[in-house]
Amino acid sequence: MAADALAVAPLLVPLLSATAALLTRRWPVIRTSVSVAGVVAYAGVVALVAWRVVVAPDAPGAVAYQVGDWPAPYGITLVVDALSAFVLVLTAAVALPAMLSSVRYLLAEDEDVYYHPLYHFLLVGITGALLTGDLFNLFVWFEVLLMASYVLIAFYGGVQHTRATLWFLVLNIVASAVMLVAIGGLYATTGTLNMADMAQRLAQPEAYGVAVGPVVGLSALLFAVFALKAGIVPFQFWVPSAYTAAPLPATALLAGAVKKVGIYAILRLYFTVFSEASVPVSLPGTAGDSPLAFLGPVLLLMAAASVVFGGVGAVRGRSIEEVLAFSSIGQVGFIAIPVAIAALVPPSAPGVAGLSARELAIAAALVYALNHTLAKGMLFLAAATVRSATGTSRLSELGGLAGRFPALSSAFMVGALALIGIPPLSGFFGKFLVFDAAVRADRTLTLAVLVGGSVLTIAYTTRAWLRGFWGERTAAVETADGDPGQVAVVVVMALGVVAVGVGFEVVFAFAEAAAEAATDTDAYVDLVAPTGGVEE
Amino acid sequence: MTLVLATLIGLLFAFGTYLLLRRDLVWVIWGLAIVSQAANAYLLTVAGIAVPGPDSVPVLGHGAEGAVPETADPLVQALVLTAIVISFGMTAFALVVTYRVYEEHDTIDVFEIGGER
Predict the structure, then answer these.
(1) ipTM above 0.90?
(2) pLDDT tens-digit profile of B37-91?
(3) Which of A311, A387, A498, B66 has the most CB atoms within 10 Å of its CB?
(4) DSSP A445-514
(5) Residues on chain B touching A136 (C-beta within 8 angstroms)
């Protein structure tokens, strides 16, 4: 078993657990145990891959696996490098606690028969999208991921749930058609679908006879699709209804991991694949002449709008999960702003400590993504716990939770503080690096938006805290019956948020490696080693 | 030929988009189906004739020695097959959800079904 076969392992584990959970669906205890064991195995495999490929002292840094031994660009390529490993670790970090929590959250009856297979298929889709080195495969994995999330959103089958599913479904089918058009166009333009091969061809357009011009427009189409996945304004409409409709532990995975897949796809395609291309047009306000440079200002605008829209929406939220869902829109803006800054600075701009300014900004986005995954995942699980205990999550029906459930409330407080960015929690470093990136790029207006967004974050977390956790105990809270298992999961995740903040050096080293992997096109091409396609 | 195909695909996209913006949900589903199929038709047109060689038609290249016939790029057809299956499944699911919405709301008018709540 060679090291490169490790790349396929994170994909096989959830596939096996999904099948096993389907086969054992008649026996609830076995079904649930199999499913939990599957997620534990997934987390283990992801940790192993991250260790063996990236973190260990003698690690190769990246591996590529050619499925069926067909050489690139014909075969399907799976790639694990620091960037995909980083996002994989994020996924596993929220998938495991969310599954543990959902075991107690879903009612014991037959409610969870199809929940477990769906959960694992969602993991299959996320993992596939993170590992694939082929553009069309990315489309296929997106559809796998979407199919599972449609059904999870429709899971309870109530009026609100079907409606949320319908809007989400219609939006995403249109997005899929747009993505197909973009992928087809890129194939027609570059003659390849393998991402490494495409990067190679775009870097030397004359040698391969590639016209780079159309790539700008086609990459903009793709960008719209990824922005929809990430829920960035103006593609955010589906987020609140979908996130409040899905079972809350599944929402933790949707907000924690699926959104990051959109961000990951933007990083991978625009910074690794398209960044070497140059189009002989210069526009005011852009740095350089690659499709990436044209994208920067647009993304910056969209991200800033997300921060404002999400923050304002969250302040008006009526239930805990509504506040959290809107907050997700705002927080993904905080992740997208450094990505946009990375696109706006010239690739050669100096940074500190051996990292260029671009790599620093990407590392900031990744650290913030990590913080958001942990903190928001934990907050959604805390909302699930409150809902299990009290039967409601509407802020108007809650109050005085802090006295009733001190451990759960402290964990919620930690999550809220991490979103705000208080040291020594993980959120502090995320916020700090994002502000640092904005200061380095000398963007005063962006800084103002970031500060405004942070103030809004303080406003909505404080409001949720005051309404839900302090004040008079309502009848629902008085008669509440908290589940110790769910509370334990939330508390452990809160400790994780603290641990990431305290042991930040390790995390940042990983994020640095991921940022370097995202910008190093040559290494990516060498790794996959496409033979150059038809021309050879 | 290229012009005819381009016009046709453009019209399909336009018509699909028009249907997507209707108030009647069944028309919206029709719009989804048409937009997906337009994307598939577009995908078919993106590749032309492949340069003959064992690399372009791996199946032929593995078996027979010597000449490989000039052929249409097979990759695109594989992509379209995949895309058709996916869009078929998604459209079917959309129809089911629409029926469910009709059961719950007794209407398929988008405005009467309402927004997020």
Answers:
(1) no
(2) 999 999 888 876 666 666 666 666 666 566 666 777 778 888 999 999 999 999 9
(3) A311
(4) HHHHHHHHHHHHHHHHHHHHHHHHTSSSPPHHHHT----HHHHHHHHHHHHHHHHHHHTHHHHHHHHHHH
(5) 79, 82
Q: How far is A527 from chain B (nearest CA, A)?
A: 21
Residue recorded with tokens 């039967």: A391
| Cα–Cα distance for residue pair A423/A429, rounded to 1 Å | 8
| Band of residue A108 on the pLDDT scale cut at 50, 70, 90 | low
Of chain A residues 175-234, which have a CB less than 8 A from chain B? Answer: 176-178, 180-181, 183-185, 187-188, 193
Chain B touched by A173 (CB under 8 Å): yes
**Residue A384 region by backbone torsions, left for phi larger than 0, else alpha for psi between -120 and 50, else beta:** alpha
Q: Which residues contact A534 (CB under 8 A, 6 or more apart)?
A: A191, B50, B51, B53, B55, B56
Q: How many CA atoms lie within 13 A of A164 on its CB side?
A: 25
Interface of A with B in 381-420 (CB under 8 A): none
Are A89 and A50 in contact by the 8 Å Cβ rule? The answer is yes
Contact across the interface for A166 and B98, Cβ inside 8 Å: yes
Phi/psi for A274 (5° steps) reads: -90, -10
- Is residue A353 within 8 A of residue A324, CB to CB? The reply is no
Q: How many pairs of residues across A and B have Cβ atoms under 8 Å apart? A: 98
Model pLDDT for residues A436-445, shown as the tens digit of each residue: 889 888 888 9
Q: What is the mean pLDDT of residues A356-370?
A: 92
Predicted TM-score (pTM) of the model is: 0.92
Q: Which residues of chain B are at the A interface, by a Cβ-Cβ cutoff of 8 Å?
A: 20, 25, 28, 32, 35-36, 38-40, 42-43, 46-47, 50-51, 53, 55-56, 58, 75-76, 79, 82-83, 86-87, 89-91, 93-94, 97-98, 100-101, 104-105, 113-114, 116-117
Judge whether A407 and A487 are in contact, CB under 8 Å. yes
What distance in Å separates the CA atoms of residue A201 and residue A333, rounded to the nearest whole number? 32
A140 with B82: CB under 8 angstroms?
yes
Handedness of CA A367, A369, A371, A373 (dihedral sign): negative
Interchain CB contact of A435 with B (< 8 Å): no
Greater model confidence, A350 or B106: B106
- pLDDT grade for A423, boundaries at 50, 70 and 90: confident
Q: Does position A353 have pLDDT exceeding 80, yes or no?
A: no
Name the residue type at position A315: V
